């Protein structure tokens, strides 16, 4: 398919990769939608209404404002760098499955991806943007507050709720925020305008990347090269779910619950155990050795570089099918059950492997249920547990310098010994 597509001289249309048909019609004007072409807004413009409007001037101004906003959105999104389609990535099934499970159940706790350079770690993570589902947020809130859960509300939104105000709710895509290695602590945590606070007595807070990543994904490429002070910030936020900024006697807090995804090359150094334990799952990727498969990857990437929009259009059907699978799994997840006997055996594996704490037990149960939901099964099977348990425990084992066996294989050996 790739070679045929490259040699074709037909100009493909700028059709939308995202289909906004699943969005409620009353929230389209306020919903953040990624667009990859001017035809994305077809069918969602203003329609003529019979009869005369009682406010002709206001209607004309509103139409001009909305037309201007549409033009700005189209111009902005056309200028964005196209993202490689997730369904077009060849191989690396372990990494892709772990990413999908975290999207289905964000409470799994994130993913650490370690592997050789040039194996598509960053490309795969960033390609996840197209598949992220939509969530309800409070309109105009910089922290993406959840209107239905007080634990995910910012302080201002919670005060409005206590006063009995009606919150305006819109649908928005889950955010994916990149954390650069050279970012300052103020850029990550946010800053307080001390001058305005002293002169006007007002807390003026400029939210940082942690605020933007709330209820979303925070991606750190080359996480093992991250400065220690930023690692400490991530540890505090990941543990408490809140980010607190203290400056000159002024304190500001906001929710910061995010899926932490990191990638790195083991040759460049190991992660601190405290940070490594915060990742729910761990995936290892390696360089593809099969020559035919390597050629296919090169050809696909060449096609994407020549015509990104056309290449994305060729995978539109597969992308939409995967989006529907994720949406169905997220809605089906609460009804998935796991037998108590399987829970006991999971905890027995963790105990016999001397895994510290109970995070391993919790993550295995959540990941297995997410996998069952993805498969459309109402109950977790032994095969589901066998699939996810190496990724959930591999990075939690105590390292033995004399041990020659891979940690993932060690987990599987203990698993089969317990589950027989």
From TrEMBL:
GO terms for biological process: chlorophyll biosynthetic process; photosynthesis. It catalyses: protoporphyrin IX + Mg(2+) + ATP + H2O = Mg-protoporphyrin IX + ADP + phosphate + 3 H(+). The magnesium chelatase complex is a heterotrimer consisting of subunits CHLI, CHLD and CHLH. The magnesium chelatase complex is a heterotrimer consisting of subunits CHLI, CHLD, AND CHLH. Involved in chlorophyll biosynthesis. Catalyzes the insertion of magnesium ion into protoporphyrin IX to yield Mg-protoporphyrin IX. It is found in: Plastid, Chloroplast. Its main location: plastid. This is Mg-protoporphyrin IX chelatase. Pfam families: AAA_lid_2, Mg_chelatase. The gene is LOC106767465. Keywords: ATP-binding, Chlorophyll biosynthesis, Chloroplast, Ligase, Nucleotide-binding, Photosynthesis, Plastid. The keyword Metal-binding does not apply. Its EC number is 6.6.1.1. Redox regulation; active in reducing conditions, inactive in oxidizing conditions. GO terms for molecular function: ATP binding; ATP hydrolysis activity; magnesium chelatase activity. Residues 107-289 form the AAA+ ATPase domain. GO terms for cellular component: chloroplast stroma; magnesium chelatase complex.
């Amino acid at each position: 398919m790739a070679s045929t597509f490259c040699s074709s001289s037909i100009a493909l249309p700028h059709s939308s990769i995202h289909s906004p048909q699943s969005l409620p019609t009353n929230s389209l004007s306020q919903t953040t939608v990624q667009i990859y072409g001017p035809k994305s807004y077809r069918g969602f413009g203003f329609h003529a209404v019979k009869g005369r409007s009682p406010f002709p001037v206001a209607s004309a101004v509103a139409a001009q404002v909305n037309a201007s906003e549409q033009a700005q959105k189209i111009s902005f999104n056309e200028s964005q760098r196209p993202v490689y389609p997730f369904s077009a990535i060849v191989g690396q099934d372990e990494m892709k499955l772990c990413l999908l499970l975290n999207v289905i159940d964000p409470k799994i706790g994130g993913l650490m991806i370690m592997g050789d350079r040039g194996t598509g770690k960053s490309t795969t993570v960033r390609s996840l943007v197209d598949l992220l589902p939509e969530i309800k947020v409070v309109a105009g809130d910089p922290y993406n507050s959840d209107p239905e859960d007080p634990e995910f509300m910012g302080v201002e939104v919670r005060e409005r709720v206590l006063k009995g105000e009606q919150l305006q709710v819109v649908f928005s895509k889950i955010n994916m925020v990149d954390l650069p290695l050279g970012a300052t602590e103020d850029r990550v945590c946010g800053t307080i305008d001390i001058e305005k606070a002293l002169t006007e007595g007002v807390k003026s807070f400029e939210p940082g990347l942690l605020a933007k990543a709330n209820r979303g994904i925070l991606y750190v490429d080359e996480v093992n090269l991250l400065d220690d002070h930023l690692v400490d910030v991530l540890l505090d936020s990941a543990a408490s779910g809140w980010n607190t900024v203290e400056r000159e006697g002024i304190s500001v807090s906001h929710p910061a619950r995010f899926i932490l995804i990191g990638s790195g090359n083991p040759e460049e150094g190991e992660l601190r155990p405290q940070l490594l334990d915060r990742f729910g799952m761990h995936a290892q990727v390696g360089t593809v050795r099969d020559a035919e498969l390597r050629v296919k990857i090169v050809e696909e990437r060449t096609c994407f570089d020549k015509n990104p929009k056309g290449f994305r259009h060729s995978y539109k059907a597969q992308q939409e099918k995967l989006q529907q699978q994720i949406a169905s799994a997220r809605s089906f997840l609460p009804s998935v059950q796991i037998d108590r006997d399987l829970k006991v055996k999971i905890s027995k594996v963790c105990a016999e492997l001397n895994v510290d704490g109970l995070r391993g037990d919790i993550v295995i149960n959540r990941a297995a249920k997410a996998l069952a939901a993805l498969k459309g099964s109402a109950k977790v099977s032994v095969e589901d547990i066998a699939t996810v348990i190496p990724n959930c425990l591999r990075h939690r084992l105590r390292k033995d310098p004399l041990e020659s066996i891979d940690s993932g294989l060690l987990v599987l050996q203990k698993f089969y010994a317990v589950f027989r």
